[in-house]
Amino acid sequence: xxxxxxxxxxxxxxxxxxxxTCSVSGGSITTTHYYWSxxxxxxxxGLEWIGHIAYTGNTYYSPTFKSRTSVSRDTTGNQxxxxxxxxxxxxxxxxxxxxxxxxxxxxxxxQGTQVTVSS
Length: 119
Description:
- About 0% of the residues lie in helices and about 50% in strands.
- It contains no helices and 11 strands.
């Protein structure tokens, strides 16, 4: 059973960088054909896919976030990290990490972590 757990600050000031880490257990982030993703849900809105890091280490980002997003990984620690720069209050929401298969289906999710951007 794969388990994902997000960790990071719950409150970030505007213009700062948000960094969230997803710790994975029950499976390796280097296992072929899985894509380790970040998804968020702003208040009252639907899910927004931010980007992923593949089992190869390659990254791909939504055009919406590409200019200020990076995802890195620690294969020894079996975790991956989201960095979102220049945050504004519009970046407030619940942030999830998830595993996607090669067909694009999300099969495992973290519980989500609330992030608030406020001064």
